[in-house]
Amino acid sequence: MAILNQQSLLAVKKRSPVVAVVLSLLFGSFGLFYASVFGGIVMTVVALLVGLLAYAFGSMLIFKIGVVAIGISCIIWSVIAVNNSNKGFFFAQFKWEIVFRRWLRILSAAMLLLAIGVLITLIINSIPSIKSLGISYLWGKVWDPVQNIYGAYPFLIGTLLTSFIALFISIPFSFAIAIYLGEYSTKGWLSNLLRNTVELIAAVPSIIYGFWGFFVLVPIIRSFEIKIHVLPYGLGIFASSLILAVMVIPYAASLGATLIRMVPAALKEGAYGLGATRFEVIRKVIMPYTRSGLFAGVLLSLGRALGETMAVTLLIGNTSAVPHSIFALGNTMASVIANEFTEADHTIYLSALIELGLILFLVTVVINYIGKRIITRFTRN
Amino acid sequence: MESTIVSAENINAYYGDNHAIKNVNIKINRNEVVAMMGPSGCGKTTFLRCINRMHELIPNARAEGVMKLDGEDVYKMNVIYVRYKIGMVFQRPNPFPNMSIYENVIAGYLLNGLKISKADKDLIVERSLTSAALWNEVKDSLHKKGTFLSGGQQQRLCIARAIAMQPEVILFDEPTSALDPISTSSVENLFHELKANYTLIIVTHNMQQAARVSDRTAFFYLGELVEFDDTKVMFTNPKDQRTQNYITGRFS
Amino acid sequence: MEIANQQKQSLPHTQLNMSGGREQDVLLKALLALVFGPIGLLFGSLSGGFIMIILEIIIAILTFTFGTLTTTFYGLALVQLVCTIWAIYATLNKYKTVEQRIKYRNTESILYKTSIVFLSFIVAVPLIIILLYIIRQGVTQVNWHFLTNVPKPVGETGGGILNALVGTLIIVAISAIIAIPVGMMAGIYLSENPKTRLAYWAGLCVDILQGVPSIVVGIVVYFWVVKPLGTFSAVSGSIALAIMMLPIVIRSTEETLKLLPPSLKEAALSLGVPYHRVIIKIIVPCGFAGILSGIVLSIARVVGETAPLLFTAFGNPYLSASIVKPMESLPHLIYTYATSPYDDWHDLAWGASFLLLVFVLVLNISTKLITKRWKVQL
């Protein structure tokens, strides 16, 4: 019971390769439409982009190279397309499948190149500083570009201080949220409200936190500092840490909630069956079970705090001296890069800044990697 | 008119180091219903997948030997063409959730980007659904999503989807194991009608089903094809001791 | 029955029956609380310690800001006293009868829950304060003039942020054009071939890229694009933002597609449909809601990014549509104007912050709607 004639359905129009080549030679990407509609669209878009680029740069050279390159690729494409489609419907599909699979692989491999490229770029560009400053760069206490003295110690301390103070302030809150969303109330409007609030905290751009802190938080801290008789900058490590604390809460909280929800019900029910109260279940069953996961959440928060730039840049006061108290002004690695990168007028200066970026990169990568490993091991169990 | 349509010659299949199919030779005739039975893990599903090269989706799996469809070696053909010619119905009904019933039936054409006229589409949908004994139930709701149907209806929709491509052979991988008894009997009744136009190869672990629906039965045990004979002969007078053990329920 | 009860009672605290330890225990816990305050109380009663730590912080902040040092001193002394009493009470409670202890444990559980709820919901306070402040400061700035003019030079009033608005749209649009196809393809590969070595390494690199501080992305793109071109440019900013979008798009695509049953792919392949059509017409449409919400989320994440734009798109006080010239963007405008000494410019920055916030909120809410509305029923 042939419903319809498959042969006619699958039949392909034979196309002449000569016509295809001539057409692409004459009309470029438009001529390619004869051989392959998809190819025609792609090459037309590419041609438009190249034209735009050449126009934007006002460069005739780019234009000429572009025309030649597009012309050649159109001809090659048309020959291949005609050949493939002449071999029948299934052959052409099969070729497409191979091309598609190859592109999937290429673009995944591009991620590898991207990450390695970031690392290599940072290393290459910090070589001048590594060569001339050596390892003592790390504990040099003075950063004075005018005198050509570079020491990263003040920034390392500034970064560590702000991040860890922020972490300590945020942990009770993020763990409380994790426990609430993971154990006390996993559904319902109230937990939805809290969940959305936490997501919103993560969504607000860091520049807005910085801007708000600069105009609202800093005056409050200044009057507070007057009360306790320290120099009333308002800005400084303390202000940055407070804002950072708010900003990093979501990372540990949402991960913690997810992991606490994964605690097997049988385990909890066993404890309830023995007459444990909810508090005791949380403390004696849930906490030990999720300890490593909660730690991973804290690590992710730490990674965020270390790399956070804009809010800190606005609030820390940007002084390249070693901070002597938590109310002092300071600088973090990220903030000094943000402030001085465009001003760096000689090689060593720029290179010293990039070395800071390299350190920041390596530290955050290691911290994130450890965090991710813990999470994968946790979720696999 | 007994012409061979599928013939396997010395098929061996491996999952990594695990030798799953051991040197299977089988010849299946046009327009017959062949049941493949055996205890679970005996390689019957693997063998089925080797026929239309679905085993290639499983990482580490490979098959050796010659599998012929109409005299042509399947493993040397274009894989897309092979699957175009050999339809398959799976254990769990799997209609495409993003398509309506109508689109599901002609999914093979839609997905392949083949242009067919509206009249042809309507014709294919009606004929295929009628062959799958589903037309009367769904003709008023053709544009609803296929996932709203019951399990048995979904499975018949999947059969219609396979029929619509007009394949030479349709493979069934335990098609009723996820269905209730009523749906099962409606699908089984279908096999008798489909036999007129297609060759059916049905994997089942249900002996009664094999006895009910098939013309010939193959018995697999530990990756080997133990016996392949007329269903009546197989169930009344098995030649091999292992087959007899299985049929009499000595092991399952 | 009675014996059983006694055994139960003695299980959690075995030192309980040593009557000699009781006075010492109470004294020790009281002393700890007296000397170390809430921290010391932690040893006597965990939940009590937590509650008192918070209470102490609040009292300290309140008295610092609104009172004098003396009030702070009295306040903290009071906390210390309460801690001591709490510690004695809690420790004594440990030695009560079964009924009393059950009552105590229930109270403890309730108190713990209260403190958890309190701590969880208090994080909404800074968020609400910030949002309300930005809205109050910003909403009065936003009008037609503000949206359709470029900033005026110092000294002249008025002016708007058209350049930043257009700039942000162009920069983010180009980065989306780069990141979405690449990210989706890589995500498809990772979900389809999870066991290959390439997938392992690519996945690792995606994790790394996700953790890279945004400022570092800025540095790298500076050397990749800005330096070879010889000028700051919008397209370099787009590339920086695209690098930040990629991991989010990849991961959301991967996670969504991994949830789809493999039977879908098998069904399509068994119909003789080539792999690329299966992916494009079945797999991606079935996971459409998840992928799209991931894309929108990634846009929301980068639309407020400033750090990577500092050395790439830079900034531009004039309206510019050329992608190879410096271009202004909302976050960068906020940064430059916030750090300027002029009130007019601060007002512009508040207005821009409000707009940016609205963008981010709308994008975030739309991800929720997308997942709710367009989810394909499997």
For the report, how would you describe the main beta sheet of chain C?
none
Please give the share of residues in helix of chain A: over 70%
Helix content of chain C: over 70%
What best-fitting shape of chain C do the alpha-carbon axes yield?
flat
Largest sheet of chain A: none
Q: Rg of chain A from C-alpha positions? A: 30 Å
Summarize the helix and strand pattern of chain A as letters: HHHHHHHHHHHHHHH
Number of strands of chain A: 0
At a glance:
By secondary structure, chain B is an alpha/beta fold. Chain B has helices spanning 44-51, 79-85, 101-105, 107-112, 118-131, 135-138, 151-164, 181-194, 207-213, 231-236, 241-247; strands at residues 4-15, 18-29, 33-37, 61-69, 72-73, 86-89, 169-173, 199-203, 216-221, 224-230.
Explained architecture:
The complex is a heterotrimer of chains A (381), B (252) and C (378). With 381 residues, chain A is mainly α. Helix content of chain A is 77%, strand content 0%. Chain A is flat. The mean pLDDT of chain A is 87. Chain B is α/β, with parallel strands linked by helices. Chain B contains 11 helices and 10 strands. Chain C is mainly α. In chain C, 78% of the residues lie in helices and 0% in strands. Chain C is flat and about 80 Å long. Classes of the chains: A mainly alpha (381), B alpha/beta (252), C mainly alpha (378). Chains A and C meet through helix 4, helix 6, helix 7, helix 8 and helix 9 of A and helix 4, helix 6, helix 7, helix 9 and helix 10 of C.
Task: Describe the SSE topology.
The complex is a heterotrimer of chains A (381), B (252) and C (378).
Chain A: H1 6-10, H2 17-27, H3 32-35, H4 37-57, H5 60-86, H6 89-133, H7 153-184, H8 189-203, H9 206-227, H10 237-261, H11 265-273, H12 278-307, H13 310-315, H14 333-340, H15 347-380
Chain B: E1 4-15, E2 18-29, E3 33-37, H1 44-51, E4 61-69, E5 72-73, H2 79-85, E6 86-89, H3 101-105, H4 107-112, H5 118-131, H6 135-138, H7 151-164, E7 169-173, H8 181-194, E8 199-203, H9 207-213, E9 216-221, E10 224-230, H10 231-236, H11 241-247
Parallel strand pairs in B: 3-8, 3-9, 6-7, 7-8
Antiparallel strand pairs in B: 1-2, 1-4, 4-5, 9-10
Helix pairs in contact in B: 5-7, 7-8
Chain C: H1 2-10, H2 19-36, H3 38-44, H4 46-66, H5 69-94, H6 98-122, H7 124-139, H8 144-148, H9 162-192, H10 197-211, H11 214-229, H12 234-259, H13 262-270, H14 275-286, H15 288-303, H16 307-310, H17 330-338, H18 343-373
